[in-house]
Each structure stands twice: as structure tokens, then as C-alpha cells.
Amino acid sequence: MDKVQEPLVSVCCFTYNHEKYIRDAIEGFLMQKAEFPFEIIVHDDASTDMTVNIIREYEEKYPEIIKPIYQAENQYSKGIQVTISAYKKSKGKYIAVCEGDDYWTDPLKLQKQILEMEKHPGCHISFHPAIIERDGKLKRNKILGFHSNTHKIFKIEEVILGGGEFMPTNSIIINRSVIPKIISFFEIAKNAPVADYYTQILGAENGGALYLNDIMSVYRIGIPSSWTERFKKSSKSDNSQIDSLIDANNKMNEFINYKYSKQINIRNKHLVSTNLKSVNIDKNRRRSLLESHNEYISFEDKVMWHTLYKHSKIMIILKLMKDLLFRSSQI
Length: 331
Fold this sequence. Notes:
Layout: E1 9-15, H1 22-30, E2 38-44, H2 51-61, E3 69-70, H3 82-89, E4 94-99, E5 103-104, H4 109-119, E6 125-127, E7 130-134, E8 137-144, E9 152-154, H5 156-162, E10 173-175, H6 179-188, H7 196-204, E11 209-211, E12 217-221, H8 227-234, H9 240-255, H10 261-277, H11 283-292, H12 299-309, H13 312-330
Parallel strand pairs: 1-2, 1-4, 2-3, 6-11, 7-12
Antiparallel strand pairs: 4-10, 5-12, 6-10, 7-8, 9-11
């Protein structure tokens, strides 16, 4: 790979305590065979393990390509979107995203995606499916973000309704022209607990989302230091994260001039309903959800509350049954 002078693509990687995984991510970037130059920006959010040492090792070996950002204090715990720092440092026309516990598997990933995006300049975001990996095992029958057997363009309405998992984070490439809007949004929605969902929406706002049907990355789940697991952990004690998500959704609705209120309201209803159905929260939290988000509660969920949700013993039994089914599926 040639030395990078003026990169067409900036690969932005976000990592925290990923010493077991960060090599896979960086090697996946370095193996890319592209006809254009690219840079690699690795943002470390004050890891307390050996992640920083590994990044420095690669930085010393590839100083013209790898451009790290080392935080002295954890930004996530302060409610700061770490993606913004990397985006601001990036120089490429396109920005490819990957978290430090995921990795790319196709050496032509960047080449394929950028070629298609250049053919569709009206699309400011592209993505592809990813294989799920759990406990070091690839779940080849579980593909995240697989929506079609052919390349196609999805409308923004489909992106909104699809939620944050519509596009695997490690598959996303966005056009730099979207970055100012992303930054502006997060200045308004400072407490948004997630960045990629709103990046997907703003990326698709102009001309939809370009989908490639090639499976070109692996999405790890169940990683303790991942955003998803940290979100689950912080969501076990109260409803503050759910409140923050709904608030951010509503701010996005306002930010894009209420053009897709129907779809965003459906997402809010889905979010509340999913949490009401969760076997991992207690009766008081369900009651709180019902009271604080009444406008998003369906008639069905109100009936379920009276017949099922508010009965703690029944929910305990359901949780035990779910745990048993999960363990059986892992065998």
C-alpha cells in the first residue's frame, strides 16, 4: 500500500479496552487493496488495558497511514460522541466506520464500496451485510443487515424504520458532505446515547442509502467493552437510556423538519414496546415506562400490562424459560 498524502477515504475506528480485538480491526484496514490512497484514524477512548500499546505499535510501523487519537479521559462516560473527534481529524472525501472489536474480511471492501458510491453521487451513505460472531465463533447463518440479494438503494423511510441495526456499523461509508449536519445534530442532541443510527438517517436524507449485497465484515456481539453491552448494563437500573433515545429521536424529527414524523413515531413505539416486553426489567420500571411514554403505548401493550407485565412471578418464569432457550441455542 502506498504512502498516504491526500486520502480519498478516511477509515475511522473507535476503540475502548479492545486489546483482544484491535489487531483484527487494524489488519483488516491494512489489507485493503484500493486504487486510491486512504488513511486510518484510530480513536482510543482512554483504554485501561493494552489497547493503546497495540495502537502505538502499528503507528510506529505505519506512521504515514495510521493517525491515532489518544484520549486522556474517557469521553463516553462524559456523554461526548467520540465519533466527532475522528470525523474532524479526517481528510477523506469518504469516511469508513468500524469499531475496534469488529473487523473487515474482504480486501476489496473499500474498492467495491467507493466504486459504487462514485457511480451514485446522490447517495451519501453506503453499507453491506456482516456476519455475526459470538464467543469467537462465526454464526454464518446469522447475517446482520442482509436486506436483498442484489445491490439497491433504500429510502430514508426504510432506514428510519429499520433502527440502528439496519446497517452494521462496521459496514458504513459516508460522504464527507454529511459531516457538518452530523456535527450540528449532536450539538443539539448532546445526550444522545448512540451515534450510528442518526448518522444513518442523515446519510440517507439526500438520496437514500446505497446497499451492496456482499458480506465483507464481521460484527462481534457479547463483547463487555462494546457500546451495546455498556448500553445494556447502564439500562438495567432505570429507564434513563430509553428516555435519552426517545428524546434524541424527537430531536432528529425536529432537525429534519418533521418530514418523517410517522416513521420516527413508529420507532419510538417499537422502542417502548420492546422494553415493556423485556424479561430483564422489573414491574416498577414497566410502570414508569407506561407513565412517562403513554403516547407511545399501544392498546395491545396496555392489555399485556394488566394481564402479564405487572405480575412479577409470571415474568420471572418467562425469564427462566428465555434463559434456557438461549443456552440451548448456544450448544
